[in-house]
């Protein structure tokens, strides 16, 4: 049976369709980071599919061939392969909604998500040790404060660098997170320790209400690359090989659960739109939490005591 072709004004090419898709993403006012991701992803997909390939000629067989080609690329791991396949699927469903191709269900390969590696207690002890304010640089002190803040709130890097001094309400004991991944503002409670740390920090940082809470040495807003480099150097100088700010978010979530924190509250703090997302997030922490469970093995404790049945 021949392939059903829809009546359209002209045979639109894949390259034209990708341009239209990116314009649609911009029209939907997606975050800059999301736009960059889709833009970079479509450029890579174009290399495999071909800019002049007709959208109407794309079917599941061509998608399967695309995935096979990805698998043959030694530079791509399973997660990268899954990401490209998922983005291709999203792109194709966009074409279906535009009625450029018939609607059909697209199958993409499943991958085993890698467990999230968090900071160990020993590493946290090293990273949270307060520097000597008489001898350290402002950058080192600031990164120490940011480390404490991340482990107290679990916010993302993009949210962190957009917090202004006015967003911290010491009287109410909260911080207002106005820039988030899903663009829904958050109100996160601040514990007593982080409030004291921030109050001391602001004595050195100074600044007006409209200034950014965490700034560079010139008092201006931080940029992602500078933040990453600062944390990398901070960790390295303290003998911690792991780095990455998002790892603090993972560590925050893990510690929250281990101390008996409520999952629903965690969902609100992390800014997840549903409890299912939080649950999936926690599933990735299972292997790390498993180590903690083994350390507190009640059965082993009684076994050591040599209890015998009569």
Task: Describe it.
By secondary structure, this protein is mainly alpha-helical. Helix content is 54%, strand content 3%. A 3-stranded antiparallel sheet has the order 1-2-3, with no helix packed on it. β2 and β3 form a beta hairpin. α3 packs antiparallel against α4 and α11 packs across α12. The longest helix has 20 residues. The N terminus is likely disordered.
List the helices and strands and how they pair.
Layout: H1 14-27, H2 32-49, H3 60-71, H4 78-97, H5 121-127, H6 138-153, H7 157-160, E1 168-169, E2 174-177, E3 186-189, H8 192-205, H9 224-237, H10 246-258, H11 263-270, H12 275-283, H13 286-295, H14 298-304
Antiparallel strand pairs: 1-2, 2-3
Helix pairs in contact: 1-2, 2-4, 3-4, 6-8, 6-10, 11-12
Spatial sequence of strands, sheet with the most strands: 1-2-3
The major sheet is characterized as: 3 strands, antiparallel
Which series of helices and strands comes N to C?
HHHHHHHEEEHHHHHHH
Q: How many beta-strand elements?
A: 3
**Net shape:** globular
How many H/I helical runs?
14
Cα gyration radius (Å): 25 Å
Highlighted features:
single chain; 310 residues; disordered N terminus; three-stranded antiparallel sheet; 3% strand; mainly alpha; globular
Would you kindly provide a brief summary of this structure?
The protein has 310 residues and is mainly alpha-helical.
């Amino acid at each position: 049976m021949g392939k059903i072709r829809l009546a359209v004004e002209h045979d639109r090419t894949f390259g034209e369709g990708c341009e239209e898709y990116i314009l649609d993403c911009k029209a939907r006012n997606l975050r800059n980071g999301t736009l960059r991701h889709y833009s970079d992803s479509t450029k890579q997909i174009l290399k495999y599919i071909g800019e002049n390939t007709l959208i109407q000629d794309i079917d599941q067989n061509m998608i399967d061939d695309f995935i096979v080609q990805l698998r043959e690329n030694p530079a791509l791991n399973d997660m990268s392969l899954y990401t490209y396949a998922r983005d291709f699927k999203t792109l194709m469903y966009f074409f279906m909604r535009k009625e450029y191709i018939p609607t059909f269900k697209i199958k993409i390969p499943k991958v085993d998500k890698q467990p999230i590696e968090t900071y160990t207690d020993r590493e946290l002890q090293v990273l949270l040790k307060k520097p000597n304010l008489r001898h350290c640089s402002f950058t080192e002190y600031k990164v120490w404060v940011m480390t404490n803040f991340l482990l107290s709130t679990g916010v993302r890097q993009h949210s962190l660098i957009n917090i202004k001094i006015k967003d911290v309400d010491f009287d109410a004991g909260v911080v207002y997170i106005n820039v988030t991944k899903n663009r829904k503002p958050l109100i996160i409670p601040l514990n007593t320790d982080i409030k004291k740390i921030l109050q001391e920090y602001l004595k050195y940082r100074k600044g007006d209400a409209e200034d950014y809470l965490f700034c560079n040495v010139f008092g201006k807003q931080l940029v992602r690359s500078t933040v990453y480099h600062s944390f990398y150097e901070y960790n390295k100088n303290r003998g911690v090989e792991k780095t990455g700010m998002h790892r603090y978010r993972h560590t925050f979530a893990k510690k929250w659960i281990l101390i008996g924190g409520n999952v629903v509250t965690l969902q609100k703090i992390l800014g997840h739109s549903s409890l299912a997302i939080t649950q999936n997030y926690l599933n990735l922490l299972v292997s790390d939490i498993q180590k903690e469970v083994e350390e507190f093995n009640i059965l082993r404790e009684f076994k050591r005591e040599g209890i015998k049945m009569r």
